[in-house]
Amino acid sequence: MTEQPGDGRETGGARGVSEEEARAWAELVDAARRTVADGLVVGTSGNVSVRVGGTVLVTPSGVPYDRLTPDDVTGVDLTGRQVLGTLVPTSELPMHLAVYRTTGARAVVHTHAVHATAVSTLVDELPPIHYMAAALGGPVRVARYAAYGTDELAGHMLRALDGRTGCLLRNHGTVTHGTTLTQAYDRTAQLEWMCRLWLTASSVPGLSPHLLTPEQLGEAGERMRGYGQPPGPSGG
Fold first, then answer.
1. Percentage with pLDDT > 70 across the chain
2. Which of 198, 195, 176 is nearest to 187 (CA)?
């Protein structure tokens, strides 16, 4: 949903903010602003959340990200009861909570990225155009359409996410999750890039893009397990 400024009504926060929550909130605000800077959302048409223990910090409804301050921290427990802040949480809270209740995710990013949303209107699954699909667990599914902010949409999303860390929402956008906010954000960016790649390749008249086989995606997934620098004394 595109949430308009001024939608945020006030509710009662129940307690103070811990140092860990304050750090997580600062990271969340930076990521939310980055979604705008990177062109993944327009205005407040997306939302970001981070789980700290049993608390989910989430962007508030209808507040432009450049206006958020440390005092605007907004948090709920896993039942959706507000425990931090006075701003109303995003209307897409059911999707975020559904992810946290059913996975080990510590962060969720939802956007209305243009190319990904366009793909969501065309297919039931993003064609395997690139091996980075393996980084999301395999071919990216498109969740059935339902009205924003509903439990029905959250249910469709969970089915599309089964065995995956990202999916498309039909006529809506993207959802990705990760063990860190950086990981969840990077998955969103990769998903948007793959959608743009497929749209570009499939638009060439008279030609159809070559797609990867399940075996090729599986091989890529295995190779990714050892990708990057090994942990060292500094924990890198």
1. 89
2. 176
pLDDT above 80 (res 1): no
Catalytic residue among 92, 192, 215, 219: 92
Is 92 a residue of the active site?
yes
Distance CA(174)–CA(46), nearest Å, equals: 9
Strands 47-52, 107-111: pairing kind: antiparallel
Element (H, E) at 159: helix 151-161
Q: What is the pTM of this model?
A: 0.89
- Only one residue has tokens 């893009």, namely 209
207-226 as b/e: b if 16+ CB within 10 A? eeeeebeeeebeebbeeeee
140-168 pLDDT, tens digit each? 999 999 999 999 999 999 999 999 999 99
Long-range CB contacts (< 8 A, 24+ apart) of 73-76?
73/17, 73/21, 73/22, 73/25, 75/21
